[in-house]
Every structure is written in structure tokens, then in C-alpha cells.
Amino acid sequence: MSINWTGVFPAVTTKFTANDELDFNAFNINLEAQLEAGVDGIILCGSLGEASVLTEEEKLDLLSHTLKEVNGRVPVLLNIGESTTKKAVDVAIKAKQLGADGLMLLPPLRYYSDVEETLAFFSAVAESTDLPIMIYNNPVDYKIEVTLDMFEYLARYSNIQAVKESTRDISNITRMINRFGDRFKIFTGVDPIAMECLVMGADGWVAGLVDAFPKETVAIFRLVKQNRIAEALTIYRWFLPVLELDIKPKLVQYIKLAEVATGIGTEAVRAPRLAIKGAERESVLKIINDALAVRPQLPEGSWGI
């Protein structure tokens, strides 16, 4: 499957049982809610998917399971976040063998590679596969920025096709478009500035709170792209306090709590993460419940398959 790089691509959470095993039943409930809302792709094993605490076997099992459940309805991408080039290449090859439609690719983890090292890392993965690749550019959390000059170099690889733009600098979207036109499709990756990025020309949204609120997320995207800005803005203003949970250190726990509140998820996380409690829990629940109390009615045709 070639990827049409546009729309809402949820970075889905990974579900766990009480015995700390993959919970495919709970995962399926959320996955179907995403597809019913009309999302355009699925991204597995990102930061929100707790990739850092998953074994390789679990990641590949989750990929195989998702591909079977989705059954070609939308592209399924596997995130690659590895510490070594050798391992990143190995995961890319295995993802291709299992039938993944594409990859999202982080710079090397743990070691803060310089420009030459980062480009060599990306190049090695791109040369190892023909799968379409989205580069994940998030210097805020991962400390390595993929600059415009670096994208100039990466443009030689036809399968490097998109970027998850998470620099939190909205003007970077304009810089990318001015320099590269539509060579790289741009996805906003920061929920609380998503609408602003879409208005500035982003092609899509790698979303987090979509895991709990898929219909609202899809509606904002579609309304913006239909130039129905006022309608999108009404939903976005309602959504913003919840979207801001996406940029907190405990975003996984917070978003999973929101999934429980909307009936399409579970709260279980894998240690060292722990479920939130006490005043912190009450504070997050208040944000979620305040939003649910005034959940807006969505314009007809703004979501759904």
C-alpha cells in the first residue's frame, strides 16, 4: 500500500492486561473506534505507545495483529526508536516482512548524535527498505533537531516522504513549504498547536488525544481542510484544555485515563510508569470530565468513514 500522506494518524496507545501482557481485546475496541471516526492511518509503538518498555517480540506481535484487524482499510506504520543503527535497520526489515505499510523514524535514542551521525542513521534505514518513511522531528523531547539543511540531504531518498513536525515552532511549517514545496508531507505532532499548524498548511496530524476523542479530532482536521474555520475553531477551543495533556511528562497515563472516561480504553501502564493517583488524578479527571460535560455536537459529515 502506498501512503496518501494526509489526514489524522493516531499514535495509538498499547493496552496491557492485569498480568502485564498485551491486551489485544482492549486494543481492538480502541482501534475500531479510530477507524469508525474516519482516521487515515495508524501509528504503532511510538512514545505514547510505550515503545521504550516493549520487547521486540511484542512490537512485532502488535504490528501483525493490527495489520490483520485493519485489513487494508488504512495504512499501518511502525515507529522505529532504537539506540543503534544496526537495530533500526533490523526492525525496518522485519516490519517490511510482516507487511507494514510504512515507518515513522526517530533519530538515535540515548546518544545525542551530531548532524553527520544522524544523517547516516536515517540513510541506513532508508537504504534498507522501500517502505515509505516519516521522519519524527522532535528536538524538545529527543534533543536532536532535523534541520532544513538535513532535509535537503534526505530528499535524495524517495521513500523519505513525510515529517512529523514537533519542533513546536509553527513557522517551521512555512519554512519547509517555502524550501521544499510538497516534497515532504508535513504532519503536526503537537496536539495543543495542531489547528494552528493545519491552518498554516500542514497536511496531516499525528495525534495523541485522538485516542480518547477520535471523532472530534477528525472533525477539526476535516473542517480546517474544507476551510470551515469557524466551525473547527469552536471544537478546538472546547478541546484545548484536554489537548494540553499531550505535552505533559505523564501524557501516557493522562491519555489512557481519558480513554477510560470515553469508554474506549484501559488505564493499565507498564512499569516504571504507574497509574496516577491522589490530587494529580483528580486534577486530570476534572479537565476530562469538564470537557465531557459540554462535549459539542459535531457538524454533519465532519467525521466517519
Describe the structure.
GO terms for molecular function: 4-hydroxy-tetrahydrodipicolinate synthase activity. This is Dihydrodipicolinate synthase. With 305 residues, the protein is α/β, with parallel strands linked by helices. It has one domain (7-293): TIM Barrel. Helices cover 45% and strands 11% of the residues. It has helices at 24-37, 56-70, 85-98, 115-128, 139-142, 148-154, 171-180, 194-199, 214-225, 229-243, 251-261, 278-293, and strands at 7-10, 42-44, 76-80, 102-105, 133-137, 160-165, 185-188, 204-207. An eight-stranded parallel sheet has the order 1-8-7-6-5-4-3-2. β6, α7 and β7 (185-188) form a beta-alpha-beta unit. The radius of gyration is 18 Å and the shape is globular. It starts with 6 loop residues before the first strand and ends in a 12-residue tail after the last helix.
